[in-house]
Amino acid sequence: MLPRKSIIPEEFAFSPALVSPIPRKPVFRDRVNKARFIAKSGACNLSHKNIREQGRFLQDVVTTLVDLKWRFTLVIFSMTFLCSWLLFAMFWWLVAFAHGDLDTNRKPGVEQCFTNVNSFTSAFLFSIEVQVTIGFGGRMITEQCPTAITVLILQNIIGLIINAVMLGCIFMKTAQSHRRAETLIFSRNAVIAVRNNRLCFMIRVGDLRKSMIINAVVRLQVVRKTTTPEGEVIPIHQIDVQTESAVAGNSIFLLAPLIICHVIDKDSPLYDLSAMELQCSDLEVIVILEGVVETTGISTQARTSYVNEEIQWGHRFVPIVTEEEGVYSVDYSKFGNTVKVATPRCSARELDEKPSILIQTLQKSELSHQNSLRKRNSMRRNNSMRKSNSMRRNNSALAVPKVQFLTPEGGPNLAVT
Q: Low complexity compositional bias: what residue ranges (predicted)?
């Protein structure tokens, strides 16, 4: 039989600490954060396991090399050239050995296949000169050796192929589209507020570079875990969300930071969510911005996501674009700043069924705004009255007093000192 201590935890067992009048200090446990599909940086939070067909990656060598990390790419780049030089150095050494060029006791007057190639080290240097086309002129082949001419042609062809593949991979790796996406920014939080008498989900996007993103398109998707009526559990159920410019194919002109708006209507997956239900939900809103880089013509894509903790209900983005001396100026220090606005806490469905909720919310907001203005005015008046009273007291304290003197005849003589 197990002891009592292993069955009942110590914090639930009867002890003098439980009946003590001194309250115990609560113990707070760290909250386990829910995994998100897309990180704030745009990286996909997905792990591939138990892939049996690893050979498929070797069938697409170029893409595999481009997807590798820089340290592995540089190692492969260096080892490819080094191995090719060593391989052909071995061929040159074997040709020289078979022709007798390495024999120190060869007969005078016999034509050599190479000049100044009498060891493996010199064969290795000759291999580098041939493939890299340096050509110092100290070592060369002669027309007396057809085998050497064949190896020369073969090494030139293979060297050109290696140069084309490896340099192409390095160029593609340095000019990847996600490098341009680093300057496409999204607001840290999303907001839900009333715009044109409708609840709207809004985010802000911007481009830090002056070069344009041509044919920029913004797509929104809501990812959540759902269960079908048949009992099938779909862990990643993607639902497309239409933005405000859906008629124009979501194409935007990203000249200055824009606020992307999604009207929460009956076709929206957020239609039945209130402010309280949104905080308890496990949905994730994925934002995808695609376009063509104006300078290079390469397609780029920037991604981010918003979980329920990053969606602020009843907030609105502050304006950041102003006109200064005939030029529009953008203050990126306020890019993610928001302000509180009057917004019903109910869902969009309830707001459509009862439009009076919005009217009452706006009226309450107007009354509270008027009351705050009255309080500010009264506080200002009180402060001004206090200042005036204090100034009067100071003036009265600084006033010169009048002193009365009596003359010897007994008549009053007033003098001021």
A: 380-396
